[in-house]
Amino acid sequence: MNKKLKNYQNWSKKDLIKEIEQLAKRKKYGLVWEEKEEKVVEQCKKELPILKEVKNKEILVDKNKPINLLIEGDNYHSLSVLNYTHAKKVDVIYIDPPYNTGNKDFIFNDRYVDKEDSYLHSKWLSFMEKRLKLAKSLLKDTGVIFISIDDNEKSQLKLLCDHIFRETNFIDEITERTSSINAFKIYGNKPVRIKDYLLIYARNKNKYIYNRIYTEKKGKWDSHFNIFYNRNNNKIISLQSILRKHGLLGKKEKLNSLEIEDQKFKKFYLKYQDNICQTGAYKDSPEKRVSLKKGGEVIVFNSKTGKKIYLYNGRMLSFLSSSINLINRGESQGIVLALSNIWDDINYNNIQNESPIVMPNGQKPIKLIERIIKIYPKEKDLIVLDFFAGSGTTGHAILNLNKKDGGNRRFILCTNDDEKICSKICYPRIKKVINGFKQKKGLDGNLKYFKTAFVDAGPTDKNKKRLTEQVTEMLCIKEGTFESVVESSEFKIFKNQDHYAGIIFDQLAIKKFKNKIKDIKSKVSVYVFSLGDDSFEDEFEDIKQKVKLSPIPDAILKVYRRIFK
Length: 565
Known about the structure:
Blueprint: H1 3-6, H2 13-25, H3 39-43, E1 47-53, E2 59-60, E3 67-72, H4 75-85, E4 90-95, E5 107-108, E6 111-112, H5 120-138, E7 139-149, H6 154-166, E8 170-177, E9 186-187, E10 190-191, E11 195-202, E12 220-230, E13 235-238, H7 239-245, H8 255-261, E14 265-273, E15 276-281, E16 289-292, E17 298-301, E18 308-312, E19 315-320, E20 323-328, E21 342-343, H9 351-354, H10 366-375, E22 383-386, H11 393-405, E23 410-415, H12 421-435, E24 436-437, E25 440-441, E26 446-456, H13 461-470, H14 472-479, E27 483-487, E28 491-495, E29 500-504, H15 510-517, E30 524-529, E31 547-552, H16 554-564
Parallel strand pairs: 3-23, 3-26, 4-7, 4-22, 8-21, 22-23, 29-30, 30-31
Antiparallel strand pairs: 1-26, 2-26, 5-6, 7-11, 8-11, 9-10, 12-13, 12-14, 14-15, 16-17, 17-18, 19-20, 24-25, 27-28, 28-29
Helix pairs in contact: 4-5, 4-14, 5-6, 10-11, 11-12
């Protein structure tokens, strides 16, 4: 029995009520661990995190392309800042956190946690819980998080994620083969570990949309699969749809009579063999070939002219035992084969050759991250966050994908600089990938480099003024406006291709600010310094349709009060 409870007879009524309330708050089911204080968390009770740009590390190839972000600092501080700048804006999160093996892979309060630490799991869970809660707030309702892990903490992580994201939002658990070893090799009494796991959770499973991407398969698939091309409307229709239309669902033996009756449809077959979907057409018709690309497109060609007849998007093919079905996935892009939850086709032996610099051990292959990103059916304006960025593989993978398919995905990488992982590995890698290396052309892209910094957290007017003066970079990140238009002690104006943002430090300069923006056609986000929450709507009444007003630093402080309470 708890020593504290043994003396309950001597408690006051107030103490008893307090204890009962605490007991009522305890979890009925799930993980229980010893909560451990963390220095970086306690620091935020006295100092508030902000971001400061390292100007000489900016990479700007094309100002018309999206700006990617690299943030150096503890990821608890970075995520806190992003909770203001990117709340519910992130589409995909991928992280490869420390696996907590006890082999100097997990640092807690500036010290490595070793195998003999009696709080080995508690420290890791305390660390992860705080960061996953902050990460959840960043995901869109349609967003998804992928977490790499191994056996050491997989079970604990699953329960923790069930609690944070809710068990109903669990998507799947992928097993990744991480070694080419084909048989057990015994070292002592243990087999060689050749697998990791990938846990997938949606912010809201009912709103999450995903692609089942094409994966290379080994061996042969001898079955034939039928799809139909409608010459009248240039659409491809499933066999099931045709049979249902004629009341023949489940009566496939009557298919021959259907072909004669429904001449407007041209039937194709797909044959899976030797990693390629071999295809052809029944009867002697000019529509001879349907090809399945790795990107997931089905294309109908005219064999004589070589011209494309139909590019098929908006549906997907999935293997269901020995038949293939055409499934309507609404906004999903492309036709793709069903994605297995065992990934054994990604090469982990070539990781060092993928990067322009020598990387530390334990990195993930670019192909793994590319596959993860492609599961999400969006190429335009996709925001991907990795807050255990390490060597920057996620950034490299996104630049690769954008180059391949013309997408404009953006990444946010967050990592500390322990052992110079950010400044000497992650940043140089991304820089070389953008600019080109080893006679390879650059992948293009833009990058801004930020470091976490701090201002006093005290609620004084002086501290509020100082915070306002220090959050310019945060506001530019929030608005995506990095190009300076006006800079003065009274106000600043920034822009991107189609948007402006203004920061007014002196309320007396509002009139002057309005005069500066009078010729701007697009909408302007305006942040006005206020000791309270006054956004000065009366001052902007005459141009209220043009501006979106927010008081600072109150809007930032509200976010921080929620996080650091």
